Structure formats: C-alpha cells, structure tokens
Amino acid sequence: MKFSHLLLFAAGVPLLAAAQADRAMPDASSPNAPVAPLQYRSVFADYVTASAPVQSPDKAWAAANRAVLGDQAEASAPGQQAGAGAAPATSAKTAHDQHDHEGSHK
C-alpha cells in the first residue's frame, strides 16, 4: 500500500511543477530590467580582536629561556646569559680534550 502511494506521488510531482504560473524572465539586454538588490557582507563582520598578551615578548622569551636552562639561569647575574663570563659549575672535559691528534698540532 505504501509503495503505491510513493508511485502516485512521484508521478504527480511533475504535474505540479508544470501547473505553476509562467513568469516572464526580464530581458537581460534591457538597462531597465529589474534585478535583485546587491547584498554585501564584510569579511571582517565576525572578526574578534585578539586579547593583549599578559607579558611582553621579551619577558616571555626570558621566562622560556630560564625554564629551559633550569638552575644555570638562576645562578647567573641579571642581564647576563647563563654561562657567559661565569665559570662553569663543574669542570667537565670537552670532547676535544678526550682524544689525541697524534702529531696534527706540531
């Protein structure tokens, strides 16, 4: 029973479309032809300004550097980079000191 209703509806839709009143399309070459009004929406209509940063960028970088360096940054004097001009806390040998050049520096 439901299938027959579906077939009847499918056959009736084109008849309804044909029964609509014909609207004459305006002549596109006529300068007096009516046109729909233009609608403008700015791309910035939904723009939300960014909030001001809590810290200035130089303070944020300094804090990030201190976090990476850990204790070394706290031991250095203010205004100095960690390890710049200060003696290292441990006397670790560098990789260069751990091998022999066998006559290349003579």
Structural descriptors:
about 110 residues, mainly alpha
Sheet-strand content, in percent, reads under 5%
Give the count of helical stretches.
3
Chain-averaged pLDDT: 74
Q: Which structural category fits the helices and strands?
A: mainly alpha
Order of helices and strands: HHH
Name the poorly predicted regions: none
Query: Count of DSSP E strands?
Result: 0
Radius of gyration: 40 Å
How many strands, which pairing sense, and closed or not: the largest β-sheet? Answer: none
Head-to-tail CA distance between termini:
106 Å
**Proportion of helical residues:** 25-40%
Which geometry do the CA atoms define? elongated
Give a brief outline of the structure:
The chain has 106 residues and is mainly α. Helices cover 33% and strands 0% of the residues.
Topology:
Layout: H1 2-18, H2 57-69, H3 71-75
Task: Describe the overall structure.
This protein is mostly helical and 106 residues long. The chain has three helices and no strands. The model has no long low-confidence stretch (mean pLDDT 74).
